[in-house]
Amino acid sequence: MTALASAPRGTGTRRPSREAPARAVRTLLRGLPTLPAVVLLAVFLAGPIAYCVYYAFTDMQLTGASGARFIGLDNFTRAFRDSDFLNAVKLTLVFVVGSAVIGQNTFGLALAILMQKATKPVRALVNGVVIAAWVLPEVVAGYLMYAFFYDQGSLNSLLDALHLPAQNWLYTMPILAVCLANVWRGTAFSMMVFTAAINDVPQELTEAAEMDGANPWQRLWRVVLPVIRPSILTNLMLITLQTLSVFGLIYTMTRGGPGNKSETLPIFMYQQAFQNSLIGYGTAIALVLLVVGALFSVVYIRLLKLEDD
Amino acid sequence: MRSRIVTAAALTAATALAVTGCGSGSSGSSAKSIKVVYWQNLDSTNKLQATFLASMVKEFTKANPGTKVTLVPVTASENDYYTKIQLMMRSPATAPDLVYEDTALINSDIAGGYLKPLDAYTAKWSDWSQYADAAKSAVTGSSDGKVYAVPDNTDTRGIWYNKELFAKAGISVPWQPKTWDDVLSAAKKIKAKLPGVTPLNLYTGQAGGEASSMQGFEMLLYGTPAGDKSLYDASQKKWVVGSQGFKDALNFVHSVYSEGLGPAKEQALGANFGTTVGTELIPAGKLAMDIDGSWMPNNWSDSAAKPWSDWQKVMGTAAMPTQNGQAPGSTSMSGGWAWSIPAKAKNADLAWKFLSGTLQTKTNSAKWNTVNATIAVRKDVAADASYLTSVPTNKFFTELVTDTHYRPGLPAYNQVSTAIQKAMESVTTGQASVDKAASTFDNDVKAAVGDDKTAEGSS
Amino acid sequence: MAAVATPPATSAGHAAPKTVTPRRSRRFRPSRVVINAVLLAVSALYVLPLVWMLLASVSNTNSFRLTMPSSLTLDNFDAVLNIDTTYRPMLNSLLLCGFGTAVTVVVSVLAAYPLSRYRSRVRRPFLYTILFSTGLPITAVMIPVYSMFVQVNLIDSMPATALFLAASALPFGIWLMKNFMDGVPVVLEEAARIDGANTMQVLWRVVLPLMRPGVVVVTIFTFIGMWGNFFVPFILLLSPEKLPASVSVFTFLSAHDQTQYGQLSAFSLLYSLPVVLLYLLLSRKLGGGFALGGALKG
After folding, report:
1. Cα–Cα distance, C289 to A189 (Å, whole number)
2. Which residues contact B409 (CB under 8 A, 6 or more apart)?
3. Low-confidence residues of chain C, pLDDT below 70?
4. Judging by DSSP bridges, how do beta strands B232-233 and B238-241 pair with one another?
């Protein structure tokens, strides 16, 4: 079902295996169009990542020492004894689970489902404003969210008008503020994915369920969700990876503060590598970030594969 | 004044100053051109240095026909400026010929191998003897004793206070506190009598960068009984951790922010707060006391964005007292900026010629200290009548030099400074108690310099 | 199969109810009213920050409060509309992102074809790697990238920076493109092949015209991503006059966050304009934003 693990297409008949050399040549020739991509990716991404791996095991600094010594796992042992690092790991998980896995994913799905049932102008309106937030450059989104959550900002004006308790969001609960900001900015992505997926759910299935007397909730739960499961998993994987590396939004809003109350791993890494000039330590943290992303991916890919078999 | 956002767009760079010698295709740069990199403050209306340097370039190219000096302003927060110049200095292709940086950074960049020793040049430069020893030592390598930069200014710090607000609150002026408690009790009086006025500004937190460490924390720390040995013990060559003085200083920060004597926390922790203090809060009479630098009149001079001619009438200055009034009674911190030639500069000779022959002549040095309201590092300038009278507070701040302290000129200072800012921020927000913040600082310092390079404070 | 550029979604959703349910009962269904109300409330929350930006940009009072400006003014736009603040950075951005996007689109079309059409042992690992790379924290690799650029003397070069931006956008581009291509029936290609067309001709003449939505989607995604990227140009470009608008908006933000919300909002508005226009222009061809989602369904 998923596009990732799609069946072979269009190559016609298989050649017998004794023509192996010819087949190898053919494979190479067929793969030729990927060459520019492979070169670009190897030079600009794989190369630097390999360097990152090397840097992570050295004590390289931007200033304060010249040259770099190989120091083994010191950067990593240092990280896991550093309470700020552990704090950053915790906040990163809160941020990813809160704003992506729960926030964007669930909210995006809810919007997609509700929009099916809404009148056309309302649908167009929701679509427009949600996507507008997504199209805006990250820095601008961060600035707008800063203004929104600011002590004298729109949110508190609104809460005042509704006679609800206002508070200084960026100060008292910065991680909640940045999570909500990320939901605001990123939900459009999930919404678009799910809208398209739901449209692809075969009419017959829902109709059949309706005939059987299933109420809308049951139809959603028993028919729609199982059918769009692969979309949900792919979406989860993509938004998880994207959210893990969110930097500009948080940096614009809070710079990781106050204190370290919204300091996620990318911010912590940036501060160590550039502000503290500890390139070795900073890249070690980047590696940890990559590993966290890989772990999430493995889980999702496993689930997708299960689906496949 | 220093936020930390990553930027370098020199909004202010004149298009005319097309950068020639940098980047790809720079191999053909002639021996007659140099590239000079300096920091353009984020407050883009502040063009003091841009204007001054442009006039210097004019003077130099007139005297040396056929030469070309390219000014490259880097518009960024202070921390990002350092990141950017350090990246630039890493390779011959991008290294400037002359670079401007805080003397606190010099030793770090020496250890990074970025800077060129200037002894061969200074030995043949008669003016070098005019530079004050303290200033010279600030630009000397801690490990090899070589000179790596020519300082062009220094500064001192004290308390700026609003005489009118003090009078309204019933505190007699001129005012000179004897102890930290005197400062706090004045602040409390103002809080009680003048609602709407912020009693005291003490820079704090990571967004403030070095301003938090120096104007905020070290002005307190070096006034504790351990004095010059409160942060780094030069005789043992060890960083001091676990001292009572450190906790006392943090406690002061805690008092200011938890008792509502300081600015709103989120404002104080915000980026660019320094500019707000100088250009808005003080001129508007909304801040009664500010522990700040000798350069403050820059914000108010006729060439500033918002000139404030009344400042001489309204603002008073007082020395920062030591903790309990112990000798010498007052304390100050000094820093300053200096010009260096990167190790990978392509045209060091011409850069030196520009530096010694134009930028740092007595006349131009005096001019710079005057326009920038900084304290002179040259003895001949310091004695110059026009310099002393150019800014009325120059005399006061020049006298503070006797009891001033310099930051430890060591590569690790940057990291220690960041750890200080972190400790301040957690105490300011109330995220950590004073004891907790102090022990976090101890751990950070140990991680940064190694356990063997630290010593427990004596008291 | 998932990847088809979905037809405009509007019709599919309620074609069925129309025929099944009588008209009257549908119109007065209370759940529909509730749903509309909920969605309107959500829109209101969503639009609030945007409205604030619009108002602040034409207001002469500096405030984070959401209030109607007492009088309208264009002073804020006046203040930022000059070469150094707006025009040159915007032009730089257009050059960087335009070139980068073009590279990404062309290269990902080329790469997607074999991935979509042929099976090989390396295909699956390659795809997983690509998918994983979509979430790579670019901030992390900037130091080695910088060193590399210095060594080959590409630092401060706009084309090289654009190439790097293109490379970092490639994984997502390839992955999307491949999904779209999966939706183009192979049958049509076979006809062309029988007529003697080679792979490139097939790709150009048969496949591409059928997956124009895919190209549009990748273009939008890539361009939007590059337009907002400030960290890469900040590190790789040194000369002030080469820096794009994303960097200057950061400078602007840090310089003025205590003041001048008006100018900042005006600048933000101007800076956002190109991507919004691009989106409106291109998404119109797709019949709304839904095709964007089409390629992502898995």
Report:
1. 10
2. B103, B104, B106, B107, B137, B138, B140, B142
3. 1-29, 61-67, 254-260, 286-298
4. antiparallel
Sheet holding B315-318, edge to edge: B198-201, B287-293, B157-162, B315-318
Interface confidence, given as ipTM, is 0.81
What whole-number distance in Å separates Cα of residue C154 and Cα of residue A50? 20
Q: Where, residue-wise, is CATH 3.40.190.10 in chain B?
A: 26-151+336-406, 157-334+410-456
Asked if A147's CB is within 8 angstroms of C49's CB, the reply is yes
Superfamily of segment(s) B157-334+410-456: Periplasmic binding protein-like II (3.40.190.10)
CA gap A60, A284 in Å, rounded: 11
- Residue C245 in tokens: 């608008």
What band does A293 get if pLDDT is binned at 50, 70 and 90?
A: confident
Q: Residues of B near C (CB-CB distance < 8 A)?
A: 3-13, 15, 18-19, 22-24, 42-44, 72-77, 84, 87-88, 90-91, 93-94, 267, 270-273, 275-276, 280
Q: What CATH number did the domain enclosing C174 receive?
A: 1.10.3720.10
Residue C87 shares a structural domain with residue C185: yes
Interior CA angle at C222 toward A291 and C294, to 5°? 85
Which chain B residues have a beta carbon less than 8 Å from that of A69? Answer: none
Tell me how far apart the alpha carbons of residues C248 and C231 are, in angstroms, rounded to a whole number.
Answer: 11
Contact A144 C132 (CB under 8 A): no
Residue B297 has pLDDT above 60, yes or no: yes
Q: Which residue in chain A has the smallest CA separation from C180?
A: A3
Calculated CA dihedral for residues B391, B396, B398, B402, nearest 10 degrees: 180
Distance, CA of C4 to chain centre: 19
State how beta strands B150-151 and B337-340 pair. antiparallel
Taking the Cβ of residue A171 and every Cβ of chain B, the question of whether any pair is shorter than 8 Å is answered with yes
Is residue C236 a contact partner of residue C160, using CB atoms and an 8 Å limit? yes
Distances (CA, A) of B321 to B202, B252, B324, B329, B397: 14, 13, 8, 6, 14
Name the nearest CA neighbour of B400 among B319, B321, B335. Answer: B319
Starting from the edge strand earliest in sequence, which strands make up the sheet with B337-340, in order? B68-75, B33-40, B98-102, B337-340, B150-151
Are the beta carbons of C292 and A195 closer than 8 angstroms?
no
Number of folded domains that form chain A: 1
Find the domain containing C32 and state its range. Answer: 23-73
Contacts of A67 in chain B (CB under 8 A): 113
* pLDDT(B30) > 70: no
Instruction: Identify the chains in contact with C, defined as 3+ C-beta pairs within 8 A.
Output: A, B
**Domain for residue C268, yes or no?**
yes
Nearby residues of A59 by Cβ (< 8 Å), 6 or more positions away? A65, A68, A69, A71, A74, A75, A280
Q: Which residue has the tokens 């200095």?
A: B89
Whether C39 and C108 share a structural domain: no
Residue B8 · residue B83 · CB < 8 Å:
no
In CATH, B26-151+336-406 is 3.40.190.10? yes
| Interface contact A275, partner B, CB < 8 A | yes
Average pLDDT of chain A?
A: 84
Residue A5: the pLDDT is 38
> Which one of A51, A55, A144 makes the best mutation probe of the C interface by having the most chain C beta carbons within 10 Å?
A144
CB-based contact C246 A139, cutoff 8 Å: yes
Are the beta carbons of C92 and C290 closer than 8 angstroms? no
pLDDT for residue B43? 62
Do C233 and C135 belong together in one domain?
A: yes
Residues C166 and C133 in one domain: yes
Q: What is the DSSP string of A138-170?
A: HHHHHHHHHHHHSTTSHHHHHHHHTTPPP--HH
Residue C6 DSSP label: P
Query: pTM (2 decimals)?
Result: 0.81
Of B102, B112, B98, nearest to B82 by C-alpha is B102
